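Hi W.,

Here's what went into the run:
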Amino acid sequence: MAKGVMIVAEQRDGALRKISLELASTARKLADQTGDEVSAILLGSGIEGLAAELGKYGVDKVFVGDNAALEPYITEAHADVVAKIVKENDPAILLLGASAQGKDLSARVAAKLATGLATDCTDVKIDGGKFVAIRPLYAGKCVGEIEFTSTPAMASLRPNVFAAEENAKAGAVVKVDAAVDAAAIKSKVVEVQKDTSGKVDLTEANVIVSGGRGMKDAEGFAILEALADVLKANVGASRAAVDAGWRLQKDQVGQTGKVVSPNLYIACGISGAIQHLAGMSSSKCIVAINKDPEAPIFTKADYGVVDDLFKVVPELTAACKKIIG
Amino acid sequence: MNIIACVKQVPDTEAQIKVKADGSGIEEGQIKWVMNPYDEFGVEEALKMKEKNGGDVTIVCVGPARAMETIRTALAMGADKGIHICDPVFDNADAFVIANALAAAIKALPHDIIFCGQRAIDDDAGQVGAMLAEALGLPQLTVVTKLDFAGSSVKVVRPVEGAQMVIETPLPCVVTAQKGLNEPRYASLPGIMKAKKKPVDVKKAADLGIATEAKAKVAKVVPPPARPPGKIVGGDDPAQKAAELGRLLREEAKAI
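Here's what came out:
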């Protein structure tokens, strides 16, 4: 019978990504409720050393598949190896990250295993002995509780939402055969163009300073960049600002952009169209700065400032500089 | 070229979503239905490919009777024919069932490249493209922002956190479209007139010979958790308000 919680850890360039620790910690909490074991799948080349770190966050056993053909990530190779390890070990629950890689991989693996998958979950629980995944629907306009009729029950977890807490377990390495049939792998990564901005992705940012139509033009974002520098934040944008060509598509927050959940989200000159609110309302603390007191964004904000953002934001930058030192 | 584009009908992004009192789903009465915005990018790319290389574009859609409108929209944009998989058994289907239904219909057609949206903005699952690729035994290229076609293969750009992957794959393959791939065209008036006469084949689940039991079920739908009411930061001028906000973020919210 299917038993235990398994995660698929994610690493890039030989370093675990933060989501892997969030997965490990979440899996530990679930497994402790049923007295089960947590295992992890770790794939790549020369990555065995990362198993210890997974152990630190609650993983009992790490299946390490070491093969140069697994670097960089390519769907077909990873999906084959992951599906094989899952079949051999028959976990009850399989968790992945709802990262770019995790979303691509989880759906392919679920299809291979002919099992159910809940994407981009914001909570998971054991309810009456059953695994239940909680996830936003309609970009957060409502929330669905997902139950499973097959094993493993698969869920991908939204990055930045689940806590990564240390809870040391063995993290014992189990080497597995990670051979891939080269002829069956049709896709080839021909280039990896790294972002040289030195910023993390918007979905991984702790603090986001976002601007909308109220920024007036592309130059208006300069004051947001200055605030972001002080707060070590990313700069995001509403659809209006992206469609106007002031910001890049990759910075768009909302139902047709990215869904983010930073610790702090500062919305400047964003009225709060429902499609934008859908993308940021799971943020932990929300600040809205807007001169229109009736703007819908204030209904979601923990702190609202009703005033001219072009006057408030530079003052806020100065105030934060003083506070942070 | 034999080009396929899969589409789904979804509530407009501006739609207010109301949960049914019994938690079984959402109230559909007031909703304006549109083509999933990400599918529009897929249809547009399919049309561009046809215009450049010849061939035809087939639209495949799983959805209730009203989804015919979305198929006609794609035909009005310039697609040639449609397949509408319309059966009440799909009302509570999950991505696995939908992907298998699409795969069963597509298997019966010649196909060089298949486009889907990277996700639908209703259930936001983003699973169908990859599951369809697996069901057809084809490589997948998901969340694509740029596509170059070179005779027998495609080269695409796929953004990931902090990087862009450039991936090359031989045809046939499944591509899921992300915003940025192109600017979808609007249907022209002559296009809309012509679309009415284009063939759409309606299929039932039984025609496809697939299992229709969902593996992941939405057991309950609830409204999003309410946020505690916020406070308006006071002050006589922007400087005072900003200083007070900074203090609150530091001392109360512990966010900076």
